[in-house]
């Protein structure tokens, strides 16, 4: 038989404490390890022990100015929904018990001067018993019991049992806190390991920052995870955003005159109770949220960037323990970013050395042999008296000339370093196409529509190039295509009426299977949505729609309005 049923079926007629029921209640209270489950169990058990209709525990904030949590028993979900917001402890009898903790026993709540009444739809309550709960010598909160089932007041034996139960509850809550803290630390440690592993596994820098944002959001149970890097014009630029809904915050620059930016650039962590009302928050994007942690990503050489984890408006504030764990995570993430960047530098150096060798071989061996072959064909053409043969040899010589020019273009692309990358989007697209021609074994067809170089801003252009690289890589690795068409159209109109740029990469390969990984396509969609665009795929260039066409589009104009 449960504690609740025993308490209801076997009340003590003499009014003395029922030791057996009390011991059962104490065992039940100590059975939970998860904190909120422990609070619910204490409410349920204390209500059963005292034959009360309603029970609740108000958890006091760290600063002692209100309630940070409120667990209750006896009110169904529909009634709780109609009542609305839970008590915050800023007024009324519950607020008085926070500032003056002690035992309170009332026959009628309405007759107490500290009571401020109940909200609409709240069930009537007359008798009341309140007892403080202490954890390791500090006030954790208060246990409230209301409305004795027999209609009378709470008796002395009720008070005695509730005091004992509150002492046991303090021990149980202390254990639950320790367990929760251990679980929380384990999650953050596992998250740090996951970030380090993901960053060192390779990939580009933007994907690495996205991993940090996603892990920070998950571990802090925040509404978003945001990574900012120092902007060229000063301030901090949002470079990675992880949240449920698509965000257009990517590329937003927090101005250097912001007090928050100044503190982050100085290597200081910033914790906000409510970003929506904090005057230091200068952006509309920041004012969408409530509690917020802003942590510097610091290295020995200086500031790498900042990590921001905001919660929704009205959400629970971050605790001191979460501040410490998040700061440690940020330090580990900064170290992992440095290690990953060093690893990518070594890999890039190896790639550049290999590209230099390939370029030299193409120039010194392949072009020379093609040139010699062309001269031999020209000599044979002059010696031949058959018009068809002369015409065929002439076409072969022309094809060799075109091939030599394409190889020279590829050599030029291979010899360019990252700092030498041309600024024009059209040239960067051609460079990616020429680079892809080497592993593909053929050169993709391309065409441009509209003012590609002048209409598309730098942020969108950079992401378009990354999307093109991803699409060409997918076509090479998975499609088995013999033809690829690349189109860049800077004259499209997006669904919301804004002007945009559209990238289309079509092939005649095997198409996308019904099952299998789609991480590349997911990355393309994420990049587009972060800019306010979209990405999708459809039939390709093969017969009857075989193959795949990948479409990526985003607004091409500069951002306007307040970020």
UniProtKB/TrEMBL annotation:
GO terms for cellular component: membrane. This is GAF domain-containing protein. The keyword Kinase applies. InterPro entries: GAF, GAF-like_dom_sf, HATPase_C_sf, HATPase_dom, Sensor_HK_TwoCompSys, Sig_transdc_His_kin_sub3_dim/P. Residues 538-563 are annotated as: Disordered. Residues 459-558 form the Histidine kinase/HSP90-like ATPase domain. Gene3D superfamilies: 1.20.5.1930, 3.30.450.40, Histidine kinase-like ATPase, C-terminal domain (3.30.565.10). One of its GO terms (molecular function) is protein dimerization activity. It comes from the Bacteria. Residues 34-183, 204-347 form the GAF domain. Signal peptide: none annotated. Keywords: Kinase, Transferase, Two-component regulatory system. Residues 539-548 have a biased composition (Gly residues).
């Amino acid at each position: 038989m449960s504690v609740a049923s025993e308490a209801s079926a076997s009340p003590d007629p003499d009014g003395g404490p029922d030791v057996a029921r009390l011991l059962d209640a104490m065992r039940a209270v100590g059975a939970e390890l998860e904190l909120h489950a422990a609070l619910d169990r204490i409410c349920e058990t204390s209500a059963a022990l005292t034959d009360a209709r309603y029970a609740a525990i108000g958890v006091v904030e760290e600063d002692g100015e209100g309630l940070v949590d409120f667990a209750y028993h006896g009110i169904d979900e529909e009634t709780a929904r109609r009542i609305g917001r839970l008590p915050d402890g800023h007024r009324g009898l519950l607020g008085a018990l926070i500032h003056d903790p002690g035992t309170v026993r009332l026959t009628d709540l309405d007759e107490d001067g500290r009571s401020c009444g109940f909200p609409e739809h709240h069930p009537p309550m007359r008798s009341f018993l309140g007892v403080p709960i202490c954890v390791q010598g500090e006030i954790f909160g208060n246990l409230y019991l209301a409305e004795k089932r027999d209609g009378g007041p709470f008796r002395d034996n009720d008070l005695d049992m509730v005091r004992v139960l509150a002492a046991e509850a303090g021990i149980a809550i202390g254990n639950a806190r320790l367990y929760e803290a251990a679980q929380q630390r384990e999650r953050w440690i596992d998250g740090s390991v996951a970030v380090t592993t993901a960053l060192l596994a390779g990939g580009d820098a933007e994907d690495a920052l996205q991993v940090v944002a996603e892990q920070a959001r998950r571990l802090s149970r925040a509404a978003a995870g945001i990574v900012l890097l120092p902007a060229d014009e000063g301030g901090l630029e949002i470079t990675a955003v992880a949240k449920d809904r698509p965000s257009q915050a990517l590329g937003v620059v927090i101005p250097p005159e912001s007090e928050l930016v100044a503190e982050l650039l100085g290597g200081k962590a910033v914790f906000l109770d409510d970003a929506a009302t904090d005057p230091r928050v200068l952006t509309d994007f920041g004012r969408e949220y409530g509690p917020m942690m802003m942590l510097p990503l610091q290295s020995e050489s200086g500031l790498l960037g900042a990590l921001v984890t905001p919660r929704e408006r009205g959400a629970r504030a971050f605790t001191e323990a979460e501040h410490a764990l998040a700061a440690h995570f940020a330090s580990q993430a900064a170290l992992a970013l440095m290690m990953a960047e060093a690893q990518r530098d070594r890999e890039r150096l190896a790639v550049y050395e290999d590209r230099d060798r390939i370029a030299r071989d193409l120039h010194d061996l392949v072009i020379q042999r093609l040139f010699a072959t062309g001269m031999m064909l020209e000599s044979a053409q002059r010696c031949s008296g058959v018009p068809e043969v002369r015409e065929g040899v002439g076409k072969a010589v022309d094809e060799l000339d075109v091939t030599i020019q394409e190889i020279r273009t590829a050599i030029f692309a291979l010899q360019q370093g990252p700092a030498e990358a041309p600024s024009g989007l059209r040239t960067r697209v051609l460079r990616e196409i020429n680079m892809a021609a080497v592993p593909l074994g053929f050169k993709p067809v391309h065409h441009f529509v509209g003012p590609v170089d002048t209409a598309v801003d730098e942020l969108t252009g950079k992401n378009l190039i990354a999307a093109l690289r991803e699409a060409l890589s997918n076509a090479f690795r998975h499609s088995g295509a013999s033809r690829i068409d690349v189109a860049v159209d800077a004259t499209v109109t997006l669904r919301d009426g804004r002007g945009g740029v559209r990238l289309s990469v079509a092939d005649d390969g095997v198409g996308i299977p019904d099952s299998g990984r789609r991480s590349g396509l997911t990355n393309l969609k994420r990049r587009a949505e972060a800019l306010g665009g979209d990405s999708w795929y459809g039939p390709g260039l093969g017969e009857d729609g075989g193959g795949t066409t990948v479409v990526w589009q985003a607004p091409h104009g500069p951002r306007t309005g307040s970020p």
